[in-house]
Amino acid sequence: MERPVRRQALIDDRLEAVVTAIEPPDLREQVSRTTLAGGKRVRPTVTILSCEFVGGDPADALDFAVGIELVHTASLVVDDIIDRSPIRRDAPSAWSAFGHGPAIVASDGLLGEAFDHFSTDPAAMQSVTAAMVELGEGEAMELVSIPSTEAEYMTLARRKTGALFRAAAELGAIAADGDDETVAAIGEYAERVGVAFQIRDDVLDAVADPELLGKPTGRDASLDRPSLLQVTDLSPSAANQRARDQVELAIDALERIEPVDTEAEAYLRELAEFVVEREQ
């Protein structure tokens, strides 16, 4: 994917300013290391692009974009504890660097900072809260009730990954004062992109080079986690086609909106293609 560099620079600068102001210093160190260690910044970029796509000023969506990245990072800290994964983004994961207790505190700190960025807008709070409920349901579902069918897997993927993508896009449209139909359509686009992203993650966990991926592979099989490949008898190629099917539906949703910024539209289309082609 050709990265929208200007937008990512805005996000990274604002993220650094937020996390380096956290007190006390120990928490600041943990949160900074976790948040600023890299990452594709896909979700906050979706927030900025969605805002521009429907005619908003990206500056108005920047706090929402930073907030959604903090929520995502907090969820990764917990994921790594559950998975016992020692590596995240080519570096020690939070629990392996600081211990379980400090990692959980860092996750809580990230969520607190995140919700401070949504607190002034009721629509934004509603969107993110709904996504957090679904994310929690997805995490619980994964732990206690392994999907046994493709349909059950898709529900899990929507909750675990799609919901936060949906909130990221909805936040951008909310920042641009989009109407309800626009917010719903851009949210559907992003939710389906998120599901495709999760399916591609499953495939990469099974077939990718761990050095290129930046984290250990084979975790789904070793931990008996419900990847699409584990739940079904689909080949990696067939699973990728399922991801492409989601991308096609995502583009259908995007096309229900009359674009104001065609550059942002092109990036959103490119992102949808990127999630099923990425190698990391």
Automatic annotation (TrEMBL):
| InterPro entries per record | Isoprenoid_synthase_dom_sf, Polyprenyl_synt, Polyprenyl_synt_CS
Matching entries from PROSITE patterns are given as: POLYPRENYL_SYNTHASE_2
GO process annotations (BP): isoprenoid biosynthetic process
Q: Keyword DNA-binding, does the record have it?
A: no
- Pfam families from the entry? polyprenyl_synt (PF00348)
The Gene Ontology terms for molecular function here are: metal ion binding; prenyltransferase activity
Q: Which domain of life is it from?
A: Archaea
- What are the names of the required cofactors? Mg(2+)
* Keyword Transport listed: no
Q: Which UniProt keywords apply?
A: Isoprene biosynthesis, Magnesium, Metal-binding, Transferase
Which PANTHER family does the annotation name?
FARNESYL DIPHOSPHATE SYNTHASE
Q: Which family does it belong to?
A: Belongs to the FPP/GGPP synthase family.
Q: What is this protein called?
A: Geranylgeranyl pyrophosphate synthase
Organism placement in taxonomy = Archaea, Methanobacteriati, Methanobacteriota, Stenosarchaea group, Halobacteria
